[in-house]
Amino acid sequence: METVGRMRQRRTGPLVLELDLTEGLADAPPADPLGALLTMRKARLADVLAGLRRARKDPRVKALIVRIGGGPLGLGVVQELRGAVVKLRAAGKLTVAYAETYGEFGAGTVAYYLASAFERVYLQPSGDVGLTGIALEQRFVKDALAKLSVEYQMGQRHEYKTAANMFTQDHMTEAHRESAARIAESVTEQIVAGIADSRGLAPARVRELIDQGPFIGAEAVDAGLVDDLKYRDEVYAETVPEGSHLLYVARYAKNALPRKMPHPNADVIALVQGSGPIRMGRSGRSPLGGGSAMGSDTIAAALRSARRDDKVRSIVFRVDSPGGSYVASDTIWREVVLARKAGKSVIVSMGDVAASGGYFVAMAADVIMAQPGTLTGSIGVFGGKPVLGELLSRIGVVSETVTEGANAGMFSLTRGFSEAQWARVNAWLDRIYDDFVGKVAEGRGLDRDRAHELARGRVWTGADARENGLVDELGGLEDALALARKKAGLPVDAPVRSYPRLNPLERLRPAESSEDKAAALTRIRLEAWGPMSALAAELGLPAAGGPLMLPGQWTIR
C-alpha cells in the first residue's frame, strides 16, 4: 500500500522540473543506433521546449531548476531556451538558474546571458561570472604553411567570403574586419538588451559591467548580476517544497500522455531536421568524435516522404549547418521547391547557424525563422586546393603521374593549377555564385542587384538578416511549429511527426529501391570529424568530412 501511495504521489503531487545543461543539448534526434547510444544521456532541444511549453499550463509544476555549466551551447539555442524560460516565468512558475561558475577563469558571457532570464540566479560561493563581452578571434596560417612549402590556391566570391582567408591571408582584410565587427556588435546588442530586461538594469549599466568583468562571486552579487551565493544543496532546499517530486524536463515531456490519442489518420505537421556540414549521399556520423553531417539523400528523402504523405499539411525544416557541397545543397533546395508546388507550406527554423549551403537549402521556403543570434547568409562560394608537391619532395616523397587529357591531373595536390585550369576554376565559381544569387532573388522576392548587395559572401546575424529581408521572422522551433499549424488550419495541439518515418524493422531490412525510405538511413562513417577535423583545419590540411575542400569538391560555406 505504501508503494501504491508513493506512485500516486508521483503522478499527482507537485513537480519541480530539472534541466542539466553542463553537457549541452542535442538538436536533431539520433538517426542511427550509435548516435542513440552516444547521446542517450543528452536531452534533446525539442523535448525540452515541448516540456517547458506543457509545464506552463500544468498546475502540478511549481518550479524549474536549471544547472548551467561550460557545455557547448550556441547562441541560437540559448535564445530559444531564454524565450521558453521567459514564458514559463510569465505563467507564474518559479525559475531558478544555478552554476558552480559562469566561466572559471574564462569567458562566461553566453552562459550568464542564459542564466539572466531566470527569476533567481545563484552561484556557488567559489564561482565567478565571466561577463566579459564578445571576442571573435581569427587565426591565419598562411605564413606557417609557407614555411612547410605549402601554398593554397583559392578563389572566392566575393570579398566577404572569408572562410578561406586563414589560408590565403596573413591578416584580416577590410571586408573581413567589417563583417566580424558587425557580428560582434549585433550579438553584444542582443546580450545587453536581454540582461538589462531580465535583471532590471539599464542597458548602459550592463555595458559598464561588461567592461568591468569578470567578477568574483561577491562582486557579482553587489552588481546585481547574481541573487545570492549558494551551494547546490542550499539551492534545492530553498526551491523544492516538501513532498515534491523532481523530474528532468525531457523525461517529463516524454512521459506526457495526451488527453486523447491522436487518430492514426489525423492531419499532422512534418518535422525534418538537418544538422551538420552538407554533403552528397546519406547523412552520417563518425564514431571518432564530433557531430553529424547532413546528407542530401537523407534530407531529400525526408522532404519527399513528407510531400507525398496526404496527412502532412505543412512541413517544418530545421536547419543547423555551416554549409558544404553546392550540388548537395541544390538537391535539397529542389525538394523544398517541390513541396511548395505540392501545396504544402514549408517553414524553415534556423538553429545556431544556417549559413552558405545552410542558407541555400532554406531560401525557397515560405517563411524563414531565425533567432537574433543565428549566423546566416554567407551567400557565396570558395574553391581551390592546397599545393603539397614541394613539401612532399622535401620529406622524400616522390610523385609521378601519367595522364591522358590536358586537365586530367587538375585536382592533384602535388602541383598548382595551370593558367587554363585556373580559368576553369573561376568559371565554376562564377556559375555557382550566379545560381546562388539568382535563387536568393527568386525565393526572397528581391531584384538581382539587391540580392547581390546582400550576398557577396557576407555573414549576418539573424537580427540583421531580418532587417535586410533574408529572414522573415525571429523565433525558434516552437514558433515555427505554431506557425506551421496556423498556416495549415490545424489546432494548436496538432501532432508533429519526424520524417522519414521508419519503424525499427524498416531500419534493419535492406532497401528495395532508391524510393524506399530505408535507403536514406544515416550511416556510420570512419571519418576524421570533430576534434580530428578541427586539428586538421588548424594546420591547413584536408580532412574527410571536415571544413576543407577535397579534390574535385566545390564547397560553399
Question: Helicity, in percent?
Answer: 25-40%
Secondary-structure content class: alpha/beta
Q: Describe the oligomeric state of these chains in a short phrase.
A: single chain
CATH architecture descriptor of the largest domain: Alpha-Beta Complex
Enumerate how many helices there are, as a single number. Answer: 22
Terminal CA distance reads: 62 Å
Q: What is the general shape?
A: globular
- Are there runs of 5+ residues with pLDDT below 50, and where? 1-5, 524-557
Largest sheet: 8 strands, mixed
The CATH superfamily of the largest domain appears as 2-enoyl-CoA Hydratase, Chain A, domain 1
Measured on Cα atoms, how large is the radius of gyration?
A: 25 Å
Beta-strand segment tally? 24
Broad CATH class of the largest domain: Alpha Beta
| Mean pLDDT, all residues | 85
How many domains make up the 3D coordinates? 2
Kindly estimate the percentage of residues that lie in beta strands according to DSSP: 15-25%
The CATH topology of the largest domain: 2-enoyl-CoA Hydratase, Chain A, domain 1
Tell me about this structure.
The strands form six sheets. Strands 10, 14, 16, 17, 18, 20, 21 and 22 form an eight-stranded mixed beta sheet that branches. Strands 8-4-3-2-1-9 form a six-stranded parallel beta sheet, with helices on both faces. Strands 11-13-12-23 form a four-stranded mixed beta sheet. The chain has 557 residues and is an alpha/beta fold. α4 packs parallel to α5. The chain folds into two domains: 1-132 and 213-255, 2-enoyl-CoA Hydratase, Chain A, domain 1, CATH 3.90.226.10; 268-387 and 454-549, Alpha-Beta Complex (2-enoyl-CoA Hydratase, Chain A, domain 1), CATH 3.90.226. Belongs to the peptidase S49 family. One of its GO terms (cellular component) is membrane. Residues 89-238, 340-490 form the Peptidase S49 domain. InterPro entries: ClpP/crotonase-like_dom_sf, Pept_S49_pIV, Peptidase_S49, S49_SppA_67K_type_N, S49_SppA_C.
